[in-house]
Design a protein that fits this description.
The chain is mainly beta. Strand 49 and strand 50 (about 885-890) form a beta hairpin. The protein is globular and about 95 Å long.
Length: about 950
């Protein structure tokens, strides 16, 4: 009886928890000469999986000394194999891969390659040296056996390694990011540095699974291993500097310059980076991360960083991770600017409507020095400590200009008018008589933020059973902001105008700290359990002094001097949070995986809050429960399915539940709502996949259902005389959404392929119609139902050869919105049809893309119609591949504009954003290397 109870307890515990176990689908086969039957050693096998149009997951392997090969596929989908060898014609074969959740092996059989007399003239035969050897469970690659151009970079070599994938600019193996190491130690700079190092630095490349610290202590694999590529550096290449210099010129007098240099070392590696540009790019590089993003729609930046690391080993912990201490200092400066045009319509009940148009210009100047240190060390063989300290400072100056107008129209008589027309309208004009408000606002602000963040972890290994750890963080930050606002307002129906000067001084101070415990334990051989509990405390104090004047005589140096008590604000917030998470994986049979998870969150908040006349104290205790479960069933090699369910709860911000009234913008007043409640949602998803291998057809079906409970929307009140809107958050009746998907992928012979992803959705959601000219705070708004029918299709028909790739594509997005008041009905359409082509003629590579983008059904007339989109590029490598020259031309016909739209049950908005386009970019890159020391 006791054993039965123990087993029952284990089953109950497992039903609450989830973990991840990583596998990979494997394919094997043998390649031979079709004429003689002789095995082919060193033949190349390449695979490509396209999970969806635009994505390409590639892998590569080679045949061993017996002519056999093994290749893993960690993504699910139709997989195309290409078999090749110098002196033989290529062969192709199609199959289906089930991805990382499956650990099966598929035998592709004997692949026969037909010999040909055509041989490449520039081939260097290296067949005598095997590319791959095995040493236990470690795959060893011999770099000298791979054909590379002189001056090739280390990343070019790595991309040729069988089994290594490259997507989103990162290196992956078995769908997990590769952890780069050098001579058994972590590689300082990671993925960033391998493009700077010459391929000749590598003596050997070792690829293996490096178990987690826990697994190396317990001897049991919980599935949390790292995929490691260990670069064995040749003697004489260490303790030297490597890097590159890049210069770009872009039309309209734009430039970009950057230099990267890294010192390769076992014990004291270093990295230096600097860049300057006015091409709207902000690039930073530190010891652990990098970023390359737009500043805004346009901008310029300068950035520099220095990074240093020291490595050493603790006695008795030689087989575990090496100790390291890192320090990084960097400083960035950027200026960004943007212009956004927007139109907004808020739904009214059966009466005159309003339509608002606006244009906003913003400019931001930012300077951000930072310093960061990191320590990881074994104190002995069973205990580790880890600490990260980051200190930041940020200074921002903003300048904003906003112009806007609103006008009325009768139902079913809408006519779009641009902002320029509305601002230019004069008395007597037809449009002027319909105008409600016009405004021109100017705002400038300066903000300074200081912060320090400390993360810390202590972990103790419990022999062969698991580990126990304590972890936490402490974050202290403060910010000060000074803002000046000048508003020029016209209330045309009241035939009056006013100028308002505003100023506020805002300060914010925050302390946040967390302490948590994590317990990892093995229950038997195949069950791994993780229990995590975190307790967090935060204290936030914010104050804002506000001044407003309508009389210019009271304005001194652009600053008003009259205190505005209605918008003065201060609050002190204390918040405690406890989060408990249990997770696991259950595999009752090989083909079925059950992964449940449960999170329990408890919040206690206490605030002293003052906003204008409101002076209150609020205390709230709330709890949320978030269960989820995921099941996957592999019915057969040709069929599989999965089912998931998740329930979530969102607690509204405490301040939003207080009865404050914000009148900073006289045309857009906002208030809190003391009656605001929690909102919930649950999502159920089903997926089914089927394959007909001989016909090279892969089909996928999916269905999902989302139910919203008490969602939060915005309720608007409107004064038709002044044109002023007042808004507050409100819970509304919940809606739901069904979504059905059909994916089809068919290979047509060796070179042609048809892919189509089709989705159909239908949804119901609710909102409130605007309350018009009713000052009763208890007025009940009319409920508005939005019914949506949407179609999303992405089709590609492609021709794929070794040197030429051609793709015809069509991307369709269509939505039909229907309301109880049919005058609001609309059916916006977006369709992009085009062609893209890539040509590889070494040392040249060329690319071009042309498409016709068509929109209709939008209220903003400029968004509708056809636009010819285009881009092209060509690149050329020379000087033994140390130099590369490339030319890229964007938006050749100058038609590109970025549009966005949003439709709800109570409002719709459309916007356009100006950004850099219609330009030519010429780039030159030079790579510098150190020479190896000569042996004496």
């Amino acid at each position: 009886m006791e054993n039965v109870l123990k087993k029952l307890f284990v089953v109950l515990l497992l039903s609450l928890v989830q973990s991840t176990v990583c596998h990979a689908d494997t394919f094997k086969g043998k390649i031979v000469n079709a004429e003689t039957g002789e095995i082919l050693i060193g033949a190349t096998i390449r695979s490509e999986i396209n999970p969806q149009p635009g994505w390409s997951m590639q892998n590569q392997a080679e045949t061993d000394s017996t002519g056999c090969f093994f290749l893993n596929a960690s993504w699910e989908g139709r997989i195309m194999f290409t078999f090749s060898m110098i002196g033989y014609k290529n062969a192709r074969k199609v199959d289906y891969a089930y991805g990382k959740e499956v650990n099966d092996t598929t035998d592709l059989g004997i692949i026969k390659l037909q010999p040909t007399a055509l041989m490449l003239k520039d081939v260097e035969v290296t067949a005598k040296m095997p590319r791959i050897t095995m040493s236990g469970d470690t795959i060893v690659f011999n770099p000298e056996a791979f054909k590379l151009k002189e001056g090739a970079r280390l990343d070019e070599l790595i991309k040729k390694l069988p089994g290594v994938e490259n997507h989103d600019g990162k290196l992956y193996w078995n769908n997990k990011p590769i952890r780069l190491m050098m001579n058994g130690k972590n590689l300082f700079g990671g993925d960033q540095i391998i493009g700077q190092l010459p391929a000749e630095v590598a003596g050997k490349l070792k690829l293996y699974d490096r178990k987690s610290e826990l697994a190396r202590h317990t001897g049991k694999d919980e599935g949390d291993e790292d995929h490691v590529l260990d670069i064995q550096v040749k003697p004489g290449f260490l303790d030297k500097w490597y890097g590159n210099v890049e210069a770009q010129y872009q039309t309209k007098k734009r430039y970009m310059f950057n230099v990267t240099a890294s010192k390769l070392s076992d014990h004291d590696p270093q990295m230096v980076y600097a860049q300057a540009n006015n091409a709207n790019r902000y690039i930073d590089r530190t010891m652990n991360s990098s970023m390359n993003a737009n500043i805004d729609s346009d901008g310029k930046s300068q950035y520099g960083s220095y990074n240093y690391q020291h490595n050493w080993q603790t006695k008795g912990a030689d087989k575990f991770d090496n100790n390291s201490f890192d320090i990084s200092a960097n400083m960035g400066h950027s200026d960004g600017w943007n212009t956004i045009g927007k139109s907004t319509e808020t739904f009214f009940p059966n009466q005159e409507r309003t339509f608002a148009v606006s244009e906003s210009y913003r400019y931001k100047h930012k300077i951000t020095p930072q310093m960061q240190t990191r320590l990881f060390a074994y104190t002995d063989s069973l205990n580790t400590i880890e600490m990260n300290v980051k200190a930041t400072y940020e200074k921002i100056r903003n300048t904003d200009e906003n112009k806007g107008a609103s006008y009325g129209y009768e139902p079913n008589q809408f006519e779009y008018h641009s902002l320029s027309a509305a601002l230019a309208a004069k008395p007597g004009d037809a449009l002027y008589e319909r105008l409600i408000t016009r405004n021109r606002n100017y705002q400038s602000s300066e903000q300074q933020t200081r912060g320090i963040n400390i993360d810390y972890t202590w972990k103790h290994f419990l022999g062969k059973k698991g580990s126990f750890s304590l972890q936490g963080y402490t974050n202290i930050n403060g910010a000060n902001e000074d803002t000046h606002i000048n508003r020029n307002l016209e209330y045309l129906r009241e035939k009056r105008s006013e100028t308002v000067w505003q100023y506020y001084d805002r300060s914010n101070h925050n302390l946040s700290t967390r302490l948590g415990a994590s317990f990892d334990y093995w229950l038997g051989k195949n069950v791994y359990v993780n229990i995590l509990d975190n307790v967090t405390y935060s204290r936030t104090r914010t104050t804002r002094d506000f001044f407003t004047d309508n009389n210019e005589q009271n304005v001194v140096g652009g600053t008003p001097t009259t205190l505005d008590p209605t918008n003065a604000m201060s609050y002190l917030m204390h918040k405690w949070t406890n989060q408990l998470t249990l997770k696991s994986t259950i595999t009752p049979v090989k083909a079925l995986m059950i992964m449940p998870k449960f999170s329990w969150n408890v919040y206690r908040e206490n605030t002293d809050y003052r906003y204008g006349p409101l002076d209150t104290t609020a205390v709230r205790t709330s709890q949320t429960y978030e269960p989820s479960i995921f099941l996957k069933w592999k019915i057969s090699r040709m069929r599989n399915m999965d089912l998931s369910f998740a329930y979530t709860t969102t607690v509204p911000d405490l301040v939003s539940t207080l009865g404050y009234r914000n009148t900073i913008d006289p045309l857009a007043i906002s208030t809190g709502n003391p009656l605001l409640r929690n909102s919930h949602s649950h999502t159920t998803t089903y997926n089914y996949h089927r394959m007909w291998l001989r016909k090279q057809i892969v089909m996928g079906l999916s269905a999902s259902y989302i139910k919203d409970i008490n969602p939060v929307v915005t309720l608007y009140r409107y004064n038709s005389s002044t044109g002023v809107y007042e808004s507050k958050p409100m819970n509304v009746k919940g809606g739901d959404m069904w979504k059905f998907g059909f994916n089809y992928d068919q290979g047509m012979g060796v070179y042609f392929r048809l892919m189509n992803k089709f989705a159909l959705l239908t949804s119901k959601s609710y909102g409130f119609l605007t309350i018009v000219d009713n000052v009763d705070p208890n007025a009940i708004p009319d409920l508005n139902l939005q019914k949506r029918l949407g179609i999303d299709e992405n089709m590609e028909f492609s021709y794929e050869a070794e040197k030429v790739q051609l793709t015809l594509f069509n991307r369709l997005q269509w939505n039909r919105y229907r309301y109880e008041d049919t005058s609001y009905n609309t059916s916006p359409l977006y369709n992009s049809a085009g062609i893209e082509a890539t040509l590889h003629l070494s040392p040249f590579e060329m690319f071009i893309q042309l498409s016709d983008d068509y929109r209709s059904g939008y209220a903003t007339s400029a968004m509708n119609g056809h636009k010819l989109m285009s881009q092209a590029s060509i690149s050329y490598g020379f000087c033994k591949n140390k130099c590369r020259l490339s030319l890229y031309v964007d938006d050749i016909f100058n038609k590109d504009i970025w549009y966005e739209s949003d439709y709800s049950a109570y409002q719709r908005s459309e916007s356009s954003v100006n950004y850099i386009h219609h330009y030519a970019n010429l780039r030159f890159t030079y790579t510098f290397d150190a020479k190896a020391k000569k042996n004496k």
